[in-house]
Amino acid sequence: EAGVTQFPSHSVIEKGQTVTLRCDPISGHDNLYWYRRVMGKEIKFLLHFVKESKQDESGMPNNRFLAERTGGTYSTLKVQPAELEDSGVYFCASSQGQEQYFGPGTRLTVT
Amino acid sequence: GQQVMQIPQYQHVQEGEDFTTYCNSSTTLSNIQWYKQRPGGHPVFLIQLVKSGEVKKQKRLTFQFGEAKKNSSLHITATQTTDVGTYFCAEYQAGTALIFGKGTTLSVSS
């Protein structure tokens, strides 16, 4: 069974640019989560999809972040325009129950 | 909001020594999950505890959930170099997501 995949693995962009991260969950998993870990800090929840619907987006930092999950399969997280404090590792996770399966993450560096 | 406090932040041990990380909450936890993240890797689910006073073992790892369901611990007996990484506790909140502690980063020297 294929795990959660994320693309790209790394992204380096300049402040003010746009970046789109992609997550492909495990096939059949209705729940998809986005998390972010800033260096040295805890992993923080960003938002949760159930199929194509946003169940909870209370963790989204601000309106520069836009997440979509069209068709209830893969999800994208767009940051526009990126700021320096957006740097960190963005993890996607999927689940069908309480155990969450994490992807390898996208390391975003904003310079 | 709900916070899960985890200590210590860092721990260095000699191979063969034991290691323990602790999680605490000011409010009752519905459950506690433990994850391990290897250096450069991603969090991998280890276990979930739900019942008050629950103790579960996985080889050299022992997980405990406090009687009041406000604290939990992960104990590793006789650490090995393969145990290095960051150990996170997290509460799964139904209908939403995981609330993570800050993690304990374990380093092991041989």
What key attributes describe this structure?
heterodimer; A: 111 residues; mainly beta; seven-stranded mixed β-sheet; four-stranded antiparallel β-sheet; 11 strands; 50% strand; B: 110 residues; six-stranded mixed β-sheet; five-stranded antiparallel β-sheet; 55% strand; globular
Q: What does this 3D model show about the protein?
A:
The complex is a heterodimer of chains A (111) and B (110). In chain A, strands 2, 4, 5, 6, 9, 10 and 11 form a 7-stranded mixed beta sheet that branches. A 4-stranded antiparallel beta sheet of chain A has the order 1-3-8-7, with no helix packed on it. Chain A is mostly beta strands and 111 residues long. Chain A has strands at 5-7, 10-13, 19-24, 31-37, 43-50, 53-56, 65-68, 75-79, 88-95, 101-102, 106-110. Chain A is globular, with a radius of gyration of 13 Å. Chain B is built from no helices and 11 strands. Chain B has strands at residues 4-7, 10-14, 19-25, 32-37, 43-49, 55-58, 61-65, 71-76, 85-92, 98-100, 104-109. In chain B, the strands form 2 sheets. In chain B, strands 2, 4, 5, 9, 10 and 11 form a 6-stranded mixed beta sheet that branches. Chain B has a 5-stranded antiparallel beta sheet with strand order 1-3-8-7-6, with no helix packed on it. The chains are: A mainly beta (111), B mainly beta (110). The interface between A and B is medium-sized, with 22 and 21 residues.
Mean pLDDT of chain A: 94
What is the C-alpha radius of gyration of chain A, as a whole number of Å?
Answer: 13 Å
How large, in whole angstroms, is the Cα Rg of chain B?
13 Å
Largest beta-sheet characterization of chain B: 6 strands, mixed
DSSP strand count of chain A: 11
Summarize the biggest pleated sheet of chain A. 7 strands, mixed
How do the helices and strands follow one another from N- to C-terminus of chain B? EEEEEEEEEEE
Helix segment tally of chain B:
0
What amount of the residues of chain B lies in strands? over 45%
SS-derived structural category of chain B: mainly beta
